[in-house]
Automatic annotation (TrEMBL):
Protein source organism: Sphingomonas guangdongensis
Keyword Transferase applies: yes
GO molecular function: transferase activity
Name assigned to this protein: Abequosyltransferase
Listed InterPro entries: Glyco_trans_2-like (IPR001173), Glycosyltransf_2 (IPR050834), Nucleotide-diphossugar_trans (IPR029044)
Pfam family, one: Glycos_transf_2
Glycosyltransferase 2-like domain segment(s): 4-133
Transmembrane segments annotated in the record for this chain: none
Keyword Transferase set for record: yes
Keyword entries, A-Z: Transferase
Length: 330
């Protein structure tokens, strides 16, 4: 079995060595491993980093685009370049934890029929200091390792977590089939990989969740924040509504389940970040205008998330102080 570690990247030269070193440090596995990097026309020293590591890997594939084609294009391109039976989609600023490849190899050997698997993550600081282990984003129902069957069940358990690129490993042949005959370009919303996985599990409705933290997530380094906090929030809200509608149909139980999870998970965390970062009131006003029409039907939204949109500024300032104190204590 060959495992391709697929790394789409753009201007991440200063982070790639951490990832490469974490791959080189892996032990205890027998499968063949290739490292594949698709560079979206980086203007930094990415190519120099690649050349420095080229002789350290048994197989390192690197291709650089002539211009930046966007993140979604790069997610598809990276799998095109790979040759493994399975592809581990990997953010270029994250790292593999100790024993990660061996653990994934063991699952694939025991569950050969799966379309892919998701793995837990370890939350690390920007400097990669360990903070805590997070098996699933808050609000989701699955907490222990196990196989999931049926596209609806898979997305009800994992939909929001599938947004995390580095936590997903896919069967390359099935991925390629979906990309070949599905309207993937309609879902260039930063989450095209979630759409492809959705179509994969509709064809092969078997997915595995490995709860062990196998990926180190570098927190506070979201490249999509470069366009501002509101636009980052909008990617989650609009993108996931489109995905849920396209995969399961507007109004279906799974459609509502996914949107409800986003309203109390991804959206809640974006708003909480806005509180912590002292975002202007206009951020919360625009967020309310975007989200209330979509999520007002869900009681959980009103209980957990809506207060962040409705609280007066003094309360938000107090909340910001409390959250920062709790983070410092942890």
């Amino acid at each position: 079995m060959r495992l391709s570690i697929c790394i789409p990247t753009y201007n991440r030269a200063k982070f790639l060595p951490d990832l490469f070193d974490s791959i080189l440090a892996q032990t205890g596995y027998a499968c063949e491993v290739e490292v594949v990097v698709s560079d979206n026309a980086s203007a930094d020293d990415t190519q120099a980093v690649i050349e420095r590591y080229r002789g350290k890997f048994d197989r390192l594939v690197y291709q650089c685009a002539s211009q930046n084609m966007g993140a979604d294009w790069n997610y598809l391109r990276i799998v095109e370049l790979a040759s493994g039976d399975f592809c581990w989609l990997m953010g270029s600023d994250d790292v593999l934890e100790e024993g990660a490849i061996a653990a994934v190899e063991q699952v694939i050997a025991a569950q050969p029929e799966i379309a892919g698997l998701s793995v837990g993550r370890v939350i690390r600081s920007f400097e990669l200091e360990r903070r805590r282990e997070e098996r699933l984003a808050k609000g989701l129902v699955l907490s222990d390792s196990g196989e999931l069957h049926g596209a609806d069940a898979i997305f009800r358990s994992l939909a929001a977590y599938l947004a995390y690129l580095s936590g997903q490993i896919v069967r390359r042949s099935l991925w390629n089939e979906v990309v070949e005959d599905s309207p993937v370009s309609d879902y260039f919303n930063a989450y095209v990989h979630v759409y492809v996985i959705g179509r994969m599990v509709q064809r092969c409705p078997h997915w595995y969740y490995l709860a062990e933290g196998l990926v180190g997530w570098r927190e506070d380094n979201d490249s999509f924040l470069s366009d501002g906090e509101y636009n980052r929030l909008r990617i989650d809200v609009v993108g996931y509504e489109q995905l849920a509608r396209g995969l399961f149909g507007a109004g279906s139980p799974t459609y509502h389940h996914i949107n409800r999870d986003v309203s109390t998970g991804l959206l809640f965390r974006r708003l909480l970040s806005g509180v912590i970062d002292a975002a202007p009131r206009s951020f919360f006003t625009k967020a309310a205008q975007l989200t209330f029409p979509l999520y007002a039907r869900y009681p959980a939204f009103w209980i957990k998330t809506a207060p962040l949109l409705l609280l007066p500024r003094p309360a938000l300032r107090l909340g910001r102080t409390v959250v920062k104190s709790l983070r410092a204590a942890s």
